[in-house]
Amino acid sequence: MFRRFTGGKELTRAGVARFATSFITLKRFQELKQPLRELFASKDWAESTFASTSEGKLVENIVLGDVNFWKAIKYCLSGVVSFFKVLRLMDGDAKPAMGYIYEAMDRAKG
């Protein structure tokens, strides 16, 4: 059911650095916010066995009704996106000149 509402997308991807997995999952939550809301508002969800469980109700309430959940994701990501851009620049196959790295770090500091 999840894949149908998200166009076949997953929340996590294999092969990503362990330290970044949490942030990548949060980014994916942000990207799939609308499909997730549609999923939990759907008839399919209401008829599923998970919808009647305490865990299912908790997740549904978070996705549909907890504005702070979505704000917290946005806030968390705002602090790490620039940092990940610098890491990608430094971790790429082509090693950039030091000037580019310093510039990227300055931009990341905001």
From TrEMBL:
Q: What InterPro entries does UniProt report for this protein, alphabetically?
A: RNaseH-like_sf
Going by the entry's taxonomy, the superkingdom of the source organism is recorded as Eukaryota
Name the record gives this protein = Uncharacterized protein
